[in-house]
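Colleagues,

For the teaching module next term, I've prepared a clean inverse folding example: a structure given as C-alpha coordinates, and then the sequence designed for it. I'd like students to try predicting residues themselves before seeing the answer, so please don't circulate the second half yet.
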Protein backbone atom coordinates (compact mmCIF):
# COMPACT_ATOMS: atom_id res chain seq x y z
CA UNK A 1 0.00 0.00 0.00
CA UNK A 2 1.45 3.38 -1.07
CA UNK A 3 2.13 5.97 1.60
CA UNK A 4 0.13 9.30 1.45
CA UNK A 5 2.04 12.31 -0.05
CA UNK A 6 3.76 14.65 2.36
CA UNK A 7 2.69 18.31 2.71
CA UNK A 8 5.72 19.49 0.68
CA UNK A 9 4.90 17.08 -2.16
CA UNK A 10 1.28 18.24 -2.25
CA UNK A 11 2.37 21.90 -2.52
CA UNK A 12 4.72 21.08 -5.43
CA UNK A 13 1.92 19.27 -7.29
CA UNK A 14 -0.48 22.22 -6.81
CA UNK A 15 2.11 24.64 -8.13
CA UNK A 16 2.77 22.45 -11.18
CA UNK A 17 -0.95 22.24 -11.99
CA UNK A 18 -1.49 25.97 -11.46
CA UNK A 19 1.20 27.13 -13.88
CA UNK A 20 -0.78 26.41 -17.12
CA UNK A 21 -3.90 27.98 -15.61
CA UNK A 22 -1.95 31.08 -14.64
CA UNK A 23 -0.53 31.32 -18.17
CA UNK A 24 -4.01 31.08 -19.70
CA UNK A 25 -5.32 33.71 -17.29
CA UNK A 26 -2.41 36.01 -18.13
CA UNK A 27 -3.04 35.69 -21.89
CA UNK A 28 -6.73 36.36 -21.33
CA UNK A 29 -5.90 39.42 -19.25
CA UNK A 30 -3.63 40.81 -21.96
CA UNK A 31 -6.24 40.16 -24.66
CA UNK A 32 -8.89 41.86 -22.57
CA UNK A 33 -6.63 44.80 -21.97
CA UNK A 34 -5.99 45.13 -25.70
CA UNK A 35 -9.67 44.91 -26.55
CA UNK A 36 -10.58 47.34 -23.83
CA UNK A 37 -7.91 49.87 -24.65
CA UNK A 38 -8.85 53.24 -26.17
CA UNK A 39 -9.41 53.02 -29.94
CA UNK A 40 -10.99 49.58 -30.20
CA UNK A 41 -14.60 50.76 -29.74
CA UNK A 42 -14.00 53.40 -32.40
CA UNK A 43 -12.63 50.82 -34.81
CA UNK A 44 -15.76 48.78 -34.24
CA UNK A 45 -17.89 51.85 -34.96
CA UNK A 46 -16.02 52.48 -38.21
CA UNK A 47 -16.35 48.86 -39.34
CA UNK A 48 -20.07 48.81 -38.47
CA UNK A 49 -20.60 52.03 -40.41
CA UNK A 50 -18.90 50.65 -43.52
CA UNK A 51 -20.83 47.37 -43.27
CA UNK A 52 -24.12 49.27 -42.90
CA UNK A 53 -23.26 51.30 -45.99
CA UNK A 54 -22.57 48.11 -47.95
CA UNK A 55 -26.10 46.98 -47.00
CA UNK A 56 -27.61 50.43 -47.84
CA UNK A 57 -28.78 50.68 -44.24
CA UNK A 58 -28.66 54.47 -43.99
CA UNK A 59 -30.67 54.55 -40.77
CA UNK A 60 -28.07 52.42 -39.01
CA UNK A 61 -25.24 54.54 -40.43
CA UNK A 62 -26.95 57.66 -39.15
CA UNK A 63 -27.44 56.09 -35.71
CA UNK A 64 -23.67 55.56 -35.41
CA UNK A 65 -22.99 59.28 -35.77
CA UNK A 66 -22.31 61.47 -32.77
CA UNK A 67 -25.23 63.36 -31.30
CA UNK A 68 -23.81 66.60 -32.65
CA UNK A 69 -23.55 65.17 -36.20
CA UNK A 70 -27.07 63.71 -36.08
CA UNK A 71 -28.43 67.12 -35.14
CA UNK A 72 -26.43 68.81 -37.90
CA UNK A 73 -27.58 66.47 -40.70
CA UNK A 74 -31.04 64.83 -40.37
CA UNK A 75 -31.50 61.28 -41.67
CA UNK A 76 -33.40 62.30 -44.83
CA UNK A 77 -30.70 64.73 -45.95
CA UNK A 78 -27.98 62.30 -44.88
CA UNK A 79 -29.46 59.54 -47.07
CA UNK A 80 -29.93 61.84 -50.06
CA UNK A 81 -26.29 62.91 -49.90
CA UNK A 82 -25.16 59.28 -49.95
CA UNK A 83 -27.53 58.37 -52.77
CA UNK A 84 -26.22 61.28 -54.84
CA UNK A 85 -22.63 60.22 -54.14
CA UNK A 86 -23.41 56.61 -55.10
CA UNK A 87 -25.14 57.74 -58.28
CA UNK A 88 -22.24 59.97 -59.24
CA UNK A 89 -19.86 57.02 -58.80
CA UNK A 90 -22.26 54.52 -60.48
CA UNK A 91 -21.65 52.43 -57.35
CA UNK A 92 -22.65 48.78 -57.58
CA UNK A 93 -21.24 47.30 -54.35
CA UNK A 94 -18.94 47.97 -51.38
CA UNK A 95 -16.68 45.58 -49.49
CA UNK A 96 -14.99 46.77 -46.27
CA UNK A 97 -11.85 45.35 -44.65
CA UNK A 98 -10.75 45.43 -41.01
CA UNK A 99 -10.37 48.90 -39.50
CA UNK A 100 -7.13 50.31 -38.11
CA UNK A 101 -6.71 53.32 -35.87
CA UNK A 102 -6.57 54.81 -32.38
CA UNK A 103 -8.77 56.70 -29.94
CA UNK A 104 -9.35 59.65 -32.30
CA UNK A 105 -9.10 58.23 -35.83
CA UNK A 106 -9.82 55.05 -37.76
CA UNK A 107 -9.24 53.95 -41.34
CA UNK A 108 -11.32 51.30 -43.13
CA UNK A 109 -9.91 50.02 -46.45
CA UNK A 110 -12.85 49.77 -48.91
CA UNK A 111 -13.25 48.14 -52.31
CA UNK A 112 -15.93 49.92 -54.34
CA UNK A 113 -17.17 48.29 -57.55
CA UNK A 114 -18.65 50.77 -60.02
CA UNK A 115 -20.50 50.39 -63.30
CA UNK A 116 -18.58 53.02 -65.23
CA UNK A 117 -15.24 53.49 -63.49
CA UNK A 118 -14.03 49.99 -62.61
CA UNK A 119 -13.04 48.81 -59.14
CA UNK A 120 -11.80 51.51 -56.78
CA UNK A 121 -9.76 50.58 -53.69
CA UNK A 122 -9.48 53.52 -51.31
CA UNK A 123 -9.76 54.10 -47.55
CA UNK A 124 -12.56 55.69 -45.56
CA UNK A 125 -11.10 58.01 -42.92
CA UNK A 126 -13.09 58.34 -39.67
CA UNK A 127 -12.86 60.87 -36.88
CA UNK A 128 -14.93 60.68 -33.72
CA UNK A 129 -16.89 62.90 -31.40
CA UNK A 130 -17.52 62.22 -27.75
CA UNK A 131 -20.30 59.71 -28.43
CA UNK A 132 -19.96 58.53 -32.03
CA UNK A 133 -18.63 59.14 -35.53
CA UNK A 134 -18.14 62.73 -36.61
CA UNK A 135 -19.80 63.09 -40.01
CA UNK A 136 -17.58 64.84 -42.53
CA UNK A 137 -17.52 65.25 -46.30
CA UNK A 138 -14.76 62.65 -46.74
CA UNK A 139 -17.12 59.85 -45.59
CA UNK A 140 -19.27 60.21 -48.72
CA UNK A 141 -16.94 58.05 -50.84
CA UNK A 142 -13.72 56.09 -50.34
CA UNK A 143 -10.67 58.21 -51.13
CA UNK A 144 -12.32 61.61 -50.71
CA UNK A 145 -10.65 64.29 -48.63
CA UNK A 146 -12.33 66.94 -46.54
CA UNK A 147 -12.04 69.68 -49.19
CA UNK A 148 -13.06 67.47 -52.15
CA UNK A 149 -16.20 66.32 -53.93
CA UNK A 150 -16.91 63.69 -56.60
CA UNK A 151 -17.00 64.80 -60.22
CA UNK A 152 -17.03 62.76 -63.39
CA UNK A 153 -16.96 62.71 -67.15
CA UNK A 154 -19.03 59.93 -68.72
CA UNK A 155 -19.58 58.49 -72.14
CA UNK A 156 -22.44 56.14 -73.06
CA UNK A 157 -22.04 53.53 -75.82
CA UNK A 158 -24.59 53.37 -78.68
CA UNK A 159 -27.99 52.24 -77.36
CA UNK A 160 -28.92 48.59 -77.92
CA UNK A 161 -31.73 47.56 -80.27
CA UNK A 162 -35.04 46.09 -79.12
CA UNK A 163 -36.07 43.01 -81.10
CA UNK A 164 -39.37 41.23 -81.69
CA UNK A 165 -39.54 37.49 -81.05
CA UNK A 166 -38.64 36.83 -84.70
CA UNK A 167 -35.35 38.75 -84.27
CA UNK A 168 -36.37 41.82 -86.28
CA UNK A 169 -35.70 45.25 -84.80
CA UNK A 170 -38.66 47.07 -83.28
CA UNK A 171 -36.45 49.96 -82.12
CA UNK A 172 -32.86 50.74 -83.10
CA UNK A 173 -30.39 53.54 -83.59
CA UNK A 174 -28.89 56.22 -81.34
CA UNK A 175 -30.82 57.74 -78.47
CA UNK A 176 -31.39 61.02 -80.31
CA UNK A 177 -32.61 59.32 -83.50
CA UNK A 178 -34.40 56.14 -82.47
CA UNK A 179 -36.11 54.39 -85.40
CA UNK A 180 -38.89 51.77 -85.56
CA UNK A 181 -38.40 49.71 -88.72
CA UNK A 182 -41.51 47.56 -88.13
CA UNK A 183 -43.78 50.57 -87.85
CA UNK A 184 -45.28 52.77 -85.19
CA UNK A 185 -47.38 49.90 -83.80
CA UNK A 186 -44.24 48.69 -82.05
CA UNK A 187 -43.90 51.94 -80.06
CA UNK A 188 -46.75 50.79 -77.77
CA UNK A 189 -44.29 48.13 -76.58
CA UNK A 190 -40.88 49.71 -76.98
CA UNK A 191 -41.83 53.11 -75.63
CA UNK A 192 -39.65 56.10 -76.42
CA UNK A 193 -36.33 57.77 -75.64
CA UNK A 194 -36.29 61.46 -74.77
CA UNK A 195 -34.84 64.01 -72.39
CA UNK A 196 -36.20 63.19 -68.91
CA UNK A 197 -38.75 65.55 -67.40
CA UNK A 198 -38.28 67.29 -64.09
CA UNK A 199 -40.12 64.55 -62.19
CA UNK A 200 -37.86 61.75 -63.40
CA UNK A 201 -35.63 59.90 -60.93
CA UNK A 202 -32.37 61.70 -61.68
CA UNK A 203 -30.49 59.62 -59.09
CA UNK A 204 -31.32 56.41 -60.97
CA UNK A 205 -30.27 57.87 -64.31
CA UNK A 206 -27.10 59.25 -62.73
CA UNK A 207 -26.23 55.75 -61.47
CA UNK A 208 -26.62 54.37 -65.00
CA UNK A 209 -24.09 56.84 -66.36
CA UNK A 210 -26.51 59.40 -67.82
CA UNK A 211 -25.65 63.06 -67.49
CA UNK A 212 -28.43 65.43 -66.37
CA UNK A 213 -30.77 66.13 -69.30
CA UNK A 214 -29.28 63.39 -71.48
CA UNK A 215 -31.89 61.41 -73.49
CA UNK A 216 -33.00 58.27 -71.69
CA UNK A 217 -35.83 55.74 -71.82
CA UNK A 218 -39.04 57.47 -70.73
CA UNK A 219 -41.71 54.81 -71.38
CA UNK A 220 -42.28 51.14 -72.23
CA UNK A 221 -39.37 48.73 -72.57
CA UNK A 222 -37.01 51.66 -73.18
CA UNK A 223 -37.74 52.82 -69.63
CA UNK A 224 -38.22 49.47 -67.87
CA UNK A 225 -34.90 48.13 -69.14
CA UNK A 226 -33.14 51.46 -69.58
CA UNK A 227 -29.93 50.32 -67.90
CA UNK A 228 -29.79 47.11 -69.92
CA UNK A 229 -30.26 48.99 -73.21
CA UNK A 230 -27.86 51.79 -72.32
CA UNK A 231 -24.98 49.35 -71.98
CA UNK A 232 -21.92 49.90 -69.80
CA UNK A 233 -20.87 53.56 -69.56
CA UNK A 234 -17.28 54.67 -69.32
CA UNK A 235 -15.36 57.76 -68.28
CA UNK A 236 -13.38 59.11 -65.36
CA UNK A 237 -14.35 59.58 -61.72
CA UNK A 238 -12.38 62.26 -59.89
CA UNK A 239 -12.00 63.74 -56.45
CA UNK A 240 -12.11 67.46 -57.24
CA UNK A 241 -11.48 70.34 -54.84
CA UNK A 242 -14.56 72.08 -53.57
CA UNK A 243 -14.54 75.69 -54.75
CA UNK A 244 -11.94 77.65 -52.86
CA UNK A 245 -9.82 74.78 -51.57
CA UNK A 246 -7.41 71.98 -52.40
CA UNK A 247 -5.43 71.16 -55.51
CA UNK A 248 -7.29 72.60 -58.51
CA UNK A 249 -6.18 69.68 -60.72
CA UNK A 250 -8.17 67.08 -58.82
CA UNK A 251 -7.34 63.41 -58.44
CA UNK A 252 -8.43 60.48 -60.58
CA UNK A 253 -10.17 57.73 -58.60
CA UNK A 254 -11.17 55.38 -61.41
CA UNK A 255 -11.67 55.04 -65.17
CA UNK A 256 -13.65 52.79 -67.50
CA UNK A 257 -14.32 52.17 -71.19
CA UNK A 258 -17.91 52.20 -72.56
CA UNK A 259 -19.24 48.87 -73.84
CA UNK A 260 -22.36 48.47 -76.00
CA UNK A 261 -25.03 46.02 -74.84
CA UNK A 262 -26.33 43.18 -77.00
CA UNK A 263 -29.79 43.64 -78.59
CA UNK A 264 -32.69 42.92 -76.22
CA UNK A 265 -35.05 40.29 -77.61
CA UNK A 266 -38.68 40.52 -76.55
CA UNK A 267 -41.52 38.00 -76.67
CA UNK A 268 -43.63 40.22 -78.97
CA UNK A 269 -45.28 38.66 -82.03
CA UNK A 270 -45.22 41.27 -84.80
CA UNK A 271 -48.51 40.20 -86.42
CA UNK A 272 -50.45 40.07 -83.15
CA UNK A 273 -48.98 43.40 -82.07
CA UNK A 274 -50.03 45.07 -85.32
CA UNK A 275 -53.53 43.63 -84.94
CA UNK A 276 -53.85 44.81 -81.34
CA UNK A 277 -52.83 48.37 -82.19
CA UNK A 278 -54.88 48.63 -85.39
CA UNK A 279 -58.03 47.21 -83.77
CA UNK A 280 -57.73 49.43 -80.72
CA UNK A 281 -57.65 52.17 -83.37
CA UNK A 282 -56.53 54.99 -81.11
CA UNK A 283 -59.36 54.55 -78.62
CA UNK A 284 -58.55 55.19 -74.96
CA UNK A 285 -57.98 51.79 -73.42
CA UNK A 286 -55.69 48.83 -73.89
CA UNK A 287 -55.21 45.36 -75.35
CA UNK A 288 -52.95 42.59 -74.04
CA UNK A 289 -52.31 39.19 -75.62
CA UNK A 290 -50.50 36.30 -73.92
CA UNK A 291 -49.23 32.85 -74.77
CA UNK A 292 -51.44 30.55 -72.69
CA UNK A 293 -48.74 27.94 -72.02
CA UNK A 294 -45.87 30.26 -71.09
CA UNK A 295 -47.60 33.47 -70.05
CA UNK A 296 -45.29 35.43 -72.36
CA UNK A 297 -46.59 38.72 -73.71
CA UNK A 298 -47.42 38.56 -77.40
CA UNK A 299 -48.84 42.06 -77.78
CA UNK A 300 -49.51 45.24 -75.84
CA UNK A 301 -51.53 48.14 -77.20
CA UNK A 302 -52.49 51.38 -75.54
CA UNK A 303 -52.68 51.35 -71.75
CA UNK A 304 -52.51 47.58 -71.43
CA UNK A 305 -50.71 47.52 -68.07
CA UNK A 306 -50.58 51.16 -67.02
CA UNK A 307 -54.22 52.07 -66.31
CA UNK A 308 -56.57 50.66 -63.69
CA UNK A 309 -60.35 50.52 -64.03
CA UNK A 310 -63.22 48.37 -62.67
CA UNK A 311 -63.22 45.22 -64.84
CA UNK A 312 -67.00 44.82 -64.81
CA UNK A 313 -68.36 41.37 -65.47
CA UNK A 314 -65.05 39.93 -66.68
CA UNK A 315 -64.54 39.62 -62.89
CA UNK A 316 -67.19 36.90 -62.95
CA UNK A 317 -64.45 34.55 -64.19
CA UNK A 318 -62.87 34.93 -60.75
CA UNK A 319 -66.20 34.78 -58.91
CA UNK A 320 -67.28 31.63 -60.75
CA UNK A 321 -63.92 30.02 -59.98
CA UNK A 322 -64.24 30.84 -56.28
CA UNK A 323 -67.85 29.67 -56.14
CA UNK A 324 -67.22 26.33 -57.85
CA UNK A 325 -63.96 25.65 -56.02
CA UNK A 326 -65.55 26.34 -52.60
CA UNK A 327 -68.77 24.38 -53.33
CA UNK A 328 -70.97 27.47 -53.19
CA UNK A 329 -72.49 26.74 -56.58
CA UNK A 330 -72.76 23.83 -59.04
CA UNK A 331 -72.92 23.80 -62.81
CA UNK A 332 -76.49 22.42 -62.81
CA UNK A 333 -77.86 24.85 -60.21
CA UNK A 334 -80.97 26.75 -61.31
CA UNK A 335 -81.78 30.40 -60.60
CA UNK A 336 -84.99 32.39 -60.77
CA UNK A 337 -85.55 34.71 -63.70
CA UNK A 338 -85.46 38.16 -62.10
CA UNK A 339 -84.28 41.69 -62.84
CA UNK A 340 -82.20 42.13 -59.69
CA UNK A 341 -80.68 40.43 -56.67
CA UNK A 342 -79.86 41.47 -53.11
CA UNK A 343 -76.28 41.78 -51.90
CA UNK A 344 -74.49 44.06 -49.44
CA UNK A 345 -77.94 44.95 -48.05
CA UNK A 346 -79.08 46.58 -51.29
CA UNK A 347 -80.70 45.70 -54.57
CA UNK A 348 -78.34 45.14 -57.48
CA UNK A 349 -79.90 45.21 -60.94
CA UNK A 350 -78.98 43.31 -64.07
CA UNK A 351 -77.66 45.33 -67.01
CA UNK A 352 -80.46 47.45 -68.42
CA UNK A 353 -82.72 45.84 -65.78
CA UNK A 354 -83.05 42.76 -67.96
CA UNK A 355 -84.73 39.58 -66.76
CA UNK A 356 -81.97 37.03 -66.19
CA UNK A 357 -81.67 33.53 -64.73
CA UNK A 358 -81.87 29.83 -65.56
CA UNK A 359 -78.96 27.40 -65.16
CA UNK A 360 -75.59 28.52 -63.87
CA UNK A 361 -74.27 28.21 -67.44
CA UNK A 362 -77.04 30.49 -68.71
CA UNK A 363 -76.51 32.94 -65.83
CA UNK A 364 -72.82 33.22 -66.71
CA UNK A 365 -73.43 33.43 -70.46
CA UNK A 366 -76.01 36.20 -69.98
CA UNK A 367 -73.95 37.88 -67.22
CA UNK A 368 -76.64 37.91 -64.52
CA UNK A 369 -75.70 40.33 -61.74
CA UNK A 370 -78.73 38.94 -59.90
CA UNK A 371 -76.86 35.63 -59.60
CA UNK A 372 -73.23 36.69 -59.17
CA UNK A 373 -73.56 39.48 -56.61
CA UNK A 374 -75.37 37.17 -54.14
CA UNK A 375 -72.90 34.38 -55.02
CA UNK A 376 -70.02 36.61 -53.92
CA UNK A 377 -71.79 37.00 -50.57
CA UNK A 378 -72.01 33.20 -50.29
CA UNK A 379 -68.31 32.84 -51.12
CA UNK A 380 -67.34 35.28 -48.38
CA UNK A 381 -64.57 37.83 -48.04
CA UNK A 382 -61.77 35.37 -47.21
CA UNK A 383 -62.25 33.07 -50.19
CA UNK A 384 -63.13 35.87 -52.60
CA UNK A 385 -59.91 37.74 -51.85
CA UNK A 386 -57.81 34.57 -51.73
CA UNK A 387 -59.02 33.44 -55.16
CA UNK A 388 -58.55 36.88 -56.72
CA UNK A 389 -55.02 37.11 -55.35
CA UNK A 390 -54.14 33.78 -56.92
CA UNK A 391 -55.10 35.29 -60.26
CA UNK A 392 -52.78 38.27 -59.62
CA UNK A 393 -54.77 40.90 -57.75
CA UNK A 394 -53.05 42.87 -54.96
CA UNK A 395 -49.55 42.43 -56.41
CA UNK A 396 -47.49 44.31 -59.01
CA UNK A 397 -47.91 43.17 -62.62
CA UNK A 398 -45.48 40.38 -63.49
CA UNK A 399 -44.28 41.80 -66.80
CA UNK A 400 -40.87 43.33 -66.00
CA UNK A 401 -38.33 42.59 -63.29
CA UNK A 402 -38.78 44.45 -60.00
CA UNK A 403 -36.64 47.43 -61.04
CA UNK A 404 -38.41 47.72 -64.39
CA UNK A 405 -41.85 47.58 -62.81
CA UNK A 406 -40.86 50.28 -60.36
CA UNK A 407 -39.34 52.39 -63.14
CA UNK A 408 -42.51 52.44 -65.27
CA UNK A 409 -44.70 52.95 -62.23
CA UNK A 410 -47.03 50.13 -63.23
CA UNK A 411 -50.06 50.23 -60.90
CA UNK A 412 -51.16 47.29 -58.74
CA UNK A 413 -54.57 45.75 -59.56
CA UNK A 414 -56.60 45.62 -56.37
CA UNK A 415 -59.46 43.93 -54.57
CA UNK A 416 -60.36 44.59 -50.92
CA UNK A 417 -58.80 42.37 -48.27
CA UNK A 418 -61.04 40.69 -45.66
CA UNK A 419 -62.39 43.24 -43.23
CA UNK A 420 -62.08 46.11 -45.71
CA UNK A 421 -64.91 45.40 -48.17
CA UNK A 422 -67.13 47.98 -46.43
CA UNK A 423 -70.37 46.37 -47.64
CA UNK A 424 -69.07 45.98 -51.21
CA UNK A 425 -68.46 42.24 -51.40
CA UNK A 426 -71.40 41.67 -53.74
CA UNK A 427 -70.44 44.42 -56.17
CA UNK A 428 -66.81 43.25 -56.02
CA UNK A 429 -68.01 39.89 -57.35
CA UNK A 430 -69.33 41.63 -60.47
CA UNK A 431 -66.21 43.77 -60.97
CA UNK A 432 -67.55 47.03 -59.58
CA UNK A 433 -66.88 49.03 -56.42
CA UNK A 434 -63.22 49.31 -55.51
CA UNK A 435 -62.03 46.37 -57.63
CA UNK A 436 -59.44 47.61 -60.13
CA UNK A 437 -57.76 45.74 -62.99
CA UNK A 438 -55.83 46.17 -66.23
CA UNK A 439 -56.23 44.45 -69.61
CA UNK A 440 -52.98 42.61 -68.86
CA UNK A 441 -54.39 41.18 -65.63
CA UNK A 442 -57.66 40.09 -67.24
CA UNK A 443 -55.72 38.49 -70.10
CA UNK A 444 -53.69 36.70 -67.42
CA UNK A 445 -56.92 35.63 -65.71
CA UNK A 446 -58.08 34.04 -68.97
CA UNK A 447 -54.61 32.49 -69.39
CA UNK A 448 -54.89 30.75 -66.01
CA UNK A 449 -58.22 29.16 -66.99
CA UNK A 450 -56.80 28.15 -70.38
CA UNK A 451 -53.69 26.66 -68.74
CA UNK A 452 -55.48 24.15 -66.53
CA UNK A 453 -55.65 26.49 -63.54
CA UNK A 454 -51.99 27.55 -63.41
CA UNK A 455 -51.44 31.32 -63.40
CA UNK A 456 -48.03 32.35 -64.75
CA UNK A 457 -45.90 35.45 -64.83
CA UNK A 458 -46.32 37.51 -68.01
CA UNK A 459 -42.74 38.36 -69.05
CA UNK A 460 -41.97 40.49 -72.09
CA UNK A 461 -38.31 39.42 -72.57
CA UNK A 462 -36.43 36.12 -72.62
CA UNK A 463 -33.34 37.02 -70.58
CA UNK A 464 -33.36 35.22 -67.22
CA UNK A 465 -31.83 38.14 -65.33
CA UNK A 466 -34.67 40.41 -66.47
CA UNK A 467 -37.64 38.17 -65.69
CA UNK A 468 -40.23 39.01 -63.02
CA UNK A 469 -39.75 37.05 -59.80
CA UNK A 470 -43.21 35.46 -59.72
CA UNK A 471 -43.76 31.73 -59.34
CA UNK A 472 -46.60 29.80 -61.01
CA UNK A 473 -49.75 29.76 -58.88
CA UNK A 474 -52.52 27.17 -58.88
CA UNK A 475 -55.79 29.11 -58.88
CA UNK A 476 -58.11 26.10 -58.60
CA UNK A 477 -58.45 22.42 -59.45
CA UNK A 478 -58.44 21.25 -63.06
CA UNK A 479 -62.06 20.20 -62.66
CA UNK A 480 -63.09 23.68 -61.56
CA UNK A 481 -61.24 25.51 -64.34
CA UNK A 482 -62.61 23.06 -66.92
CA UNK A 483 -66.09 24.05 -65.76
CA UNK A 484 -65.21 27.73 -65.94
CA UNK A 485 -63.88 27.21 -69.48
CA UNK A 486 -67.25 25.64 -70.36
CA UNK A 487 -68.99 28.71 -68.97
CA UNK A 488 -66.73 30.97 -71.06
CA UNK A 489 -67.49 29.03 -74.25
CA UNK A 490 -71.22 29.53 -73.58
CA UNK A 491 -70.65 33.30 -73.44
CA UNK A 492 -69.44 33.24 -77.07
CA UNK A 493 -71.81 30.58 -78.43
CA UNK A 494 -75.06 31.74 -76.84
CA UNK A 495 -74.46 34.73 -74.57
CA UNK A 496 -73.21 38.30 -74.49
CA UNK A 497 -69.90 37.64 -76.27
CA UNK A 498 -71.02 36.29 -79.64
CA UNK A 499 -69.25 39.14 -81.43
CA UNK A 500 -65.92 37.57 -80.37
CA UNK A 501 -66.53 34.45 -82.48
CA UNK A 502 -63.97 33.75 -85.22
CA UNK A 503 -63.77 31.25 -88.06
CA UNK A 504 -60.38 29.82 -87.08
CA UNK A 505 -61.38 28.33 -83.71
CA UNK A 506 -63.87 28.32 -80.87
CA UNK A 507 -63.37 31.31 -78.57
CA UNK A 508 -63.99 31.15 -74.81
CA UNK A 509 -64.49 34.45 -73.06
CA UNK A 510 -66.37 36.85 -70.83
CA UNK A 511 -67.73 40.30 -71.56
CA UNK A 512 -67.78 43.15 -69.08
CA UNK A 513 -69.35 46.58 -68.83
CA UNK A 514 -68.36 48.70 -65.83
CA UNK A 515 -70.37 51.73 -64.73
CA UNK A 516 -67.89 54.31 -63.51
CA UNK A 517 -70.21 57.23 -62.74
CA UNK A 518 -72.61 59.81 -64.20
CA UNK A 519 -71.44 61.64 -67.30
CA UNK A 520 -70.58 65.26 -66.64
CA UNK A 521 -73.39 67.34 -68.11
CA UNK A 522 -75.29 64.19 -69.08
CA UNK A 523 -79.05 63.95 -69.24
CA UNK A 524 -81.43 61.96 -67.01
CA UNK A 525 -83.84 59.46 -68.60
CA UNK A 526 -87.58 59.17 -68.00
CA UNK A 527 -87.03 56.92 -64.97
CA UNK A 528 -84.63 59.38 -63.36
CA UNK A 529 -81.47 57.41 -64.15
CA UNK A 530 -78.44 59.49 -65.20
CA UNK A 531 -76.41 59.00 -68.37
CA UNK A 532 -73.49 56.84 -67.17
CA UNK A 533 -69.88 56.64 -68.33
CA UNK A 534 -69.22 52.97 -69.05
CA UNK A 535 -66.02 51.03 -69.74
CA UNK A 536 -66.21 48.01 -72.04
CA UNK A 537 -64.22 44.82 -71.39
CA UNK A 538 -63.54 41.36 -72.79
CA UNK A 539 -61.25 38.59 -71.56
CA UNK A 540 -60.88 35.22 -73.24
CA UNK A 541 -58.77 32.66 -75.09
CA UNK A 542 -58.72 30.40 -78.15
CA UNK A 543 -58.90 27.70 -79.31
CA UNK A 544 -61.19 26.60 -76.48
CA UNK A 545 -60.12 22.94 -76.71
CA UNK A 546 -56.36 23.52 -77.19
CA UNK A 547 -55.70 27.08 -76.00
CA UNK A 548 -52.80 29.02 -77.50
CA UNK A 549 -53.59 32.70 -77.05
CA UNK A 550 -55.32 34.69 -74.29
CA UNK A 551 -56.48 38.28 -74.64
CA UNK A 552 -57.74 41.14 -72.50
CA UNK A 553 -59.46 44.26 -73.91
CA UNK A 554 -60.52 47.47 -72.15
CA UNK A 555 -62.17 50.55 -73.70
CA UNK A 556 -62.53 53.63 -71.49
CA UNK A 557 -65.78 55.62 -71.84
CA UNK A 558 -66.88 53.21 -74.54
CA UNK A 559 -69.59 53.87 -77.10
CA UNK A 560 -71.39 50.63 -76.18
CA UNK A 561 -71.15 47.61 -73.87
CA UNK A 562 -68.36 45.03 -73.77
CA UNK A 563 -70.18 42.52 -75.95
CA UNK A 564 -70.71 45.10 -78.66
CA UNK A 565 -67.35 46.91 -78.86
CA UNK A 566 -64.69 45.01 -76.86
CA UNK A 567 -65.58 41.48 -77.98
CA UNK A 568 -64.97 42.16 -81.72
CA UNK A 569 -61.50 43.57 -80.94
CA UNK A 570 -60.67 40.46 -78.92
CA UNK A 571 -61.87 38.22 -81.74
CA UNK A 572 -59.75 40.06 -84.30
CA UNK A 573 -56.62 39.82 -82.16
CA UNK A 574 -57.20 36.11 -81.48
CA UNK A 575 -57.75 35.54 -85.20
CA UNK A 576 -54.45 37.23 -86.05
CA UNK A 577 -52.62 34.92 -83.66
CA UNK A 578 -54.19 31.72 -84.94
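(Answer key — instructors only)
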Amino acid sequence: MARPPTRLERQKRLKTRALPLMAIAFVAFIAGAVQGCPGSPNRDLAENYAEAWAAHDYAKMHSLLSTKSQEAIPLDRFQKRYEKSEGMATLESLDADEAKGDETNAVVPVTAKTLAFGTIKQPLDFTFGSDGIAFQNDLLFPGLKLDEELTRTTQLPPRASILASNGKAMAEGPSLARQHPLGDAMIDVTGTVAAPDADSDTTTNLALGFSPGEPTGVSGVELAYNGRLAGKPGGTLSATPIEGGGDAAGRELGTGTPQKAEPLKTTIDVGIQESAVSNLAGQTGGVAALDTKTGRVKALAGQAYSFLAPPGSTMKIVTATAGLENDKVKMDDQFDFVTSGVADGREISNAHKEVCGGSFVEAFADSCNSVFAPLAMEIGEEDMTATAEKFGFNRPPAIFDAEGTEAVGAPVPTIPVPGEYNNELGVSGIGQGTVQATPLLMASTAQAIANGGESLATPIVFEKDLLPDVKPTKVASKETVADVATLMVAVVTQGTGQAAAISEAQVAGKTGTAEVGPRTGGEVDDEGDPDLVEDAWFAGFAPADKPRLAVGVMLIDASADGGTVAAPIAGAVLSSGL
